[in-house]
Every structure is written in C-alpha cells, then in structure tokens.
Specification:
Helix content is 27%, strand content 14%. It has ten helices and twelve strands. The protein has helices at 39-51, 76-79, 91-102, 148-163, 184-200, 210-213, 236-241, 320-331, 334-344, 354-369; strands spanning 25-31, 56-60, 107-114, 168-172, 204-208, 225-228, 246-248, 283-290, 385-386, 389-390, 392-395, 398-401. It has an eight-stranded parallel beta barrel with strand order 1-2-3-4-5-6-7-8, surrounded by four helices. The N and C termini lie far apart (44 Å).
Length: 405
C-alpha cells in the first residue's frame, strides 16, 4: 500500500472491501397511528435509512389516534380524518412508498395493532366491530360470541394483505388488559384467530412479544416473528430458547430523548446478548423506534387520561414542516448508532469514547452532505427545540412561529 496523503487518505492501486451485515432485519419503526407522517417525511427517512444500511421500514399504522391507510372496503375508517386530525395514506400512496423503498433496498412491513391500541378502529363499530366497553376511552376490541368482530377484522386484514406486498404482516398484540368481557382467555382467542388469518392469507405473522409471554396466543403459531421491546415481557434469550424467531427493539426507542447528540450508549449494544449460540440464528435483527406519543394533541388522543403531551403544538397538519424538522433532529444521528449495532456490533468500540463520537459526527456530516436533515454535530435536539432554538413558541396567545430549521 502507498503511504497516506497529507489529507489523511490512503491510496492503493487496487483493493477489496469485505463487509456484510450480521442480521437480515435492520429496521426503523415509525408510529403513524398517533401523529401522521406525511409521505415526503417517509421518503426522507428511507433516504436516511439507505445511507445507514437499514432495510426494513416498519409502519405502525393504527393506534389511539387513527387508522392511517385508506380502506376501500371500509371507507368510514378515514372519513373523519379531517382538520386537526387529517392524515392518512391512500392506496396509491402506499404503492408509491413501497416502490420508493424497493429502489433503496428497503421493504415496508405494515402493522395493524390488535386487539389493544385499536381506538383508530372506532368508526367500524357500526359495521359490527365490538369493544370491551362502552367507555369514551375504549380502545381494545372484544371477540364477541356472534363473531362479528372477527368478521370485520377478516375483511380489513384481507384487504391490507393485498395493499402491502411484503410477506410479513404485523398484528401488534401488545399491552392488552383484562376488562369487562375481555378476559385473558377471550383476548388470547382473538389473537389466535388473527394470527391464523394472517397465515391463511399467505403471510408470515409478526407480533410484539406479548403474544407469546402474556396471552400465549403465538404458542400455536411457531412461525410468528416476535418483537421484544421491554425486559419485563421477555427478551431474545427467552424467545429464542422457545424456538421463535425474533427481532429486538429493546432500549432502541428514539423518542426517549437523551439530550446531547453524543449520548450514544443506549443504542450501541449487542442485541443478541445472552442468547445461546445454538439459538443465535433465531435473532433476525432489530429495530430503532420512533413513537409519537409526545406529539398527540391530547394525551393518547383521549384513550388515556394524562397531561397535555410535550409537543402537542406540532400535532396538526399545518405543522407538518416543523414536525418533520423535529423528527429529523430527534432521530439522527442516534439512529445511525442503532443501525451500526444492527449491521455488525463491535464490543471493542466504546460508545462513550471520543473516537466513537467522532465516527458518528463524520457519518452525520455525510448525511448532511447528501441533503438529509439531522441534528447538527455539537448540538442538542429534542421534540421542540434544535440547538436551543424553538420550532414553535406561544406566549399568552401571542404566537410566534419559527420556520423549520
């Protein structure tokens, strides 16, 4: 090899770089079932994902605030998403998102969260969908004796299986609770019906780990991919020891803002830590996640009592530009660290070291050079501010709106 040039570049006559990912699933979970993400923001994200060697866009499409995809079978699902609540993807939008991802080596995996977190399905009550209670905060669906709930879900999921071509369909199954007629057995029964339906549609089912460790519904569907997200519900060592494939989202929540851009220790980790080597192949990879609870107009869109969310002022569609800038500042460059863990974790690298922070600064600079918005190096960003400057300020109703930075 030739000596390094003054600019720090190493010149060689010929060379070969050998590299490859440790995991086939290197994902980014987007919560658009609360605060809607415009198509342009998803395109920005997929460009950033590609630059960070991420290859799965996990769209969390339904939650407390909305069902975010047009249904032609049930058009009432999105009919009321107007004004402050406006925002959903037409089926043409979905096709464009999928195509945009494929051009960048990114697959799009849909998640329709059931049977909890289903408040976005309230417009389907008239069609026969039944909830666990009549409370104004109702958000969990009930497997009624007449089977009307499942009949509705069967039609909806059959349609969505055609809209989204990926071979995997995620059906959520997290954070259910026993209330009213929705006993643990009833909830487990509905989850089994849904998992069986997904398999019958020719898709591989995916769910949060609760489907195995809380209701145990996934026990009857061993091909289910399980997403571990909280230590209390089960981690990869337990899931893989039971013969299930899994991905890990634990500790990789980007909405848990840690302040300085250089605080990377939470995202640089061995996602297969503690997994028996004999079960290592069951760890398919992992995901970083950006939940949008903090951007709801009211706490969980009225499903749960609580204070006004931190970034409620950025909820409406008129704030899409500022919301996009806020998301960009919150997720990158921390998502780049998680992407590195999913590509090939190296325990010799200390995420708290100056060398590591420098590596991330250079990657962040590469993203900016490609025209991708991120939190600037040597700066702090959160949901409402970037480098100490607010996206939106309101003092005694005298509103001053700062342009997206």
């Amino acid at each position: 090899t030739a000596p390094a040039t003054a600019g720090g570049q190493l010149q060689v006559a010929a060379g070969k770089v050998i590299d490859g990912p440790a995991y086939p699933w290197r994902g980014f979970m987007v919560d658009t079932g609360r605060r809607f993400w415009p198509v342009s923001l998803l395109q920005w994200l997929m460009d950033a994902m590609a630059l960070n060697k991420m290859n799965v866009l996990h769209l969390h499409l339904s939650d407390y605030c909305r069902f975010a995809v047009e249904s032609r079978v049930f058009p009432e699902l999105t009919a009321n998403l107007t004004g402050l609540q406006a925002g959903f993807y037409t089926q043409e939008d979905v096709a464009a998102i999928v195509s945009y991802g494929l051009e960048r080596g990114i697959r799009v995996v849909p998640e329709i969260d059931l049977p909890g977190h289903a408040r976005g399905l309230l417009p389907l009550e008239a069609a026969g969908l039944t909830f666990c209670s009549a409370e104004a905060t109702r958000s969990q669906v009930y497997d009624d004796p007449s089977n009307s709930t499942f009949a509705v879900l069967e039609k909806l999921l059959t349609e969505m299986a055609e809209v989204f071509p990926d071979p995997v369909m995620n059906v959520g199954s997290d954070e259910t609770r026993s209330t009213g007629p929705c006993t643990l057995a009833n909830t487990a029964g509905l989850e089994r019906k849904v998992l069986g339906l997904v398999e019958g549609l020719g898709k591989r089912p995916m769910a949060w780990v609760n489907a195995l460790t809380t209701t145990k519904a996934a026990s009857d569907f061993p091909k289910t991919i399980l997403d571990t997200w909280a230590t209390v519900y089960g981690m990869p060592p337990e899931v893989t020891s039971r013969g299930f494939d899994c991905i890990s989202s634990t500790y990789m929540y980007l909405n848990h803002v840690t302040g300085s851009v250089g605080n990377y220790t939470n995202y640089w980790r061995d996602i297969a830590d503690g997994v028996d080597p004999a079960n290592a192949a069951h760890v398919l990879g992992g995901e970083v996640s950006m939940w949008t609870d903090d951007y709801c107009d009211i706490n969980q869109c009225g499903a749960v009592q609580g204070p006004t969310p931190l970034a409620a002022a950025l909820y409406g569609p008129e704030q899409d530009g500022r919301f996009g800038a806020s998301i960009a500042g919150v997720v990158f460059p921390r998502a780049s660290v998680g992407a590195g863990s999913l590509w090939r974790y190296n325990p010799a690298l200390d995420a708290g070291s100056g060398d590591f922070v420098g590596r991330m600064a250079r990657q962040n600079a590469r993203m900016v050079a490609r025209g991708l918005d991120t939190c600037p190096n040597d700066c702090s960003c959160d949901q409402l501010t970037r480098c100490g400057k607010p996206y939106l300020w309101d003092d005694n109703q005298n509103k001053f709106q700062r342009s997206a930075l």
